[in-house]
Design a protein that fits this description.
Elements lengths: L8 E4 L13 E3 L19 E7 L8 H5 L7 E7 L2 E7 L5 E10 L2 E10 L2
C-alpha cells in the first residue's frame, strides 16, 4: 500500500484523540515480555473509544504493516489473543497507547480499526 495513493475512509464510532498520520512506527516481531505484558488498554472499557476503518486494498504482509499508517511514532507489536491477532501500539515507556484490530484475508493483513483510551 502506497500512502500517497491510498484513500482512507474512516467511520468514527466514538470520539477519538489525534495521533493518526504518516508512519514512523517501529515494529517488534517478538517483543520481550517486559516490554509488552498484555494487550489491554490502561483504562476501563467504558473509558475507551473505537474507530472502525474502511481501507482500500491490497492487504499487507504482516499485521504491523497493516496498521503502520495509523501508528505515528508508536512502536508496534502483535499478539495472539483468543485466536485473534491484536497489534498493540506502545509509547516510548512501553505502556500500551492503542490496540489495533486486524484480520487476515487471502491477499494479506487488513486493519479493521483501533481502540484507545479517551483523553
Amino acid at each position: 500500500m502506497r500512502i500517497g495513493h491510498v484513500v482512507v475512509m474512516v467511520a468514527v464510532v466514538a470520539a477519538v484523540g489525534s495521533g493518526c498520520g504518516a508512519s514512523t512506527a517501529a515494529t517488534r516481531e517478538d517483543p520481550t515480555p517486559s516490554a509488552v505484558t498484555g494487550t489491554a488498554l490502561p483504562c476501563a472499557d467504558a473509558e475507551q473509544s473505537r474507530v472502525d476503518l474502511d481501507v482500500p486494498g491490497p492487504g499487507q504482509p504482516s499485521p504491523e504493516e497493516a496498521v503502520a499508517t495509523y501508528a505515528g511514532a508508536l512502536e508496534l507489536a502483535s499478539r495472539e489473543v483468543n485466536g485473534d491477532t491484536v497489534v498493540v501500539g506502545l509509547r516510548q515507556d512501553g505502556s500500551i497507547f492503542r490496540t489495533y484490530h486486524v484480520s487476515q484475508r487471502a491477499d494479506g493483513w487488513w486493519p479493521d480499526g483501533y481502540s484507545e483510551c479517551r483523553a
